[in-house]
Amino acid sequence: MELMPWRPSGELTTLRREMDNLWNRFWGGTSLPTFTAEEWLPPVDLSETKENLLVRAELPGMDAKDIKVTISGDILSIKGEKREEKESKDEHCYCSERYAGAFQRNIRLPVNVKSDKINATFDKGVLQISLAKTEESKVKEIEVKVK
Question: Which residue, among 38, 18, 20, 37, has the nearest Cα to 29 in the 3D structure?
């Protein structure tokens, strides 16, 4: 008899498959929406230029007044709450996959930034934060001399 390592994710996959089969038999072909921790957080891009760090977060359907950006040390926090749309009394919902509720993303910054030189803008569902790097964080080229 061969020993095999226990993989809890394998059991969850089997359970998921069984639940999908049950759901498909009941509703006729549609599957259950997938819920994982990553889906409850807005996707974020972090990039760097010579002068700044740039953070972009997708927050569709939100208003700027519902978003709060803070910085503490090397942690940038983006908090917010997406309000749930009220369903009308005459409407019957068959499927609801859009998320509503509070979220918080904490991003550890790879370099030091000037906390007084941060600019945040919100346009078309995308939050863009520009953080000016400190002089120590900027890349400096060092001349190599020949002896």
Answer: 20
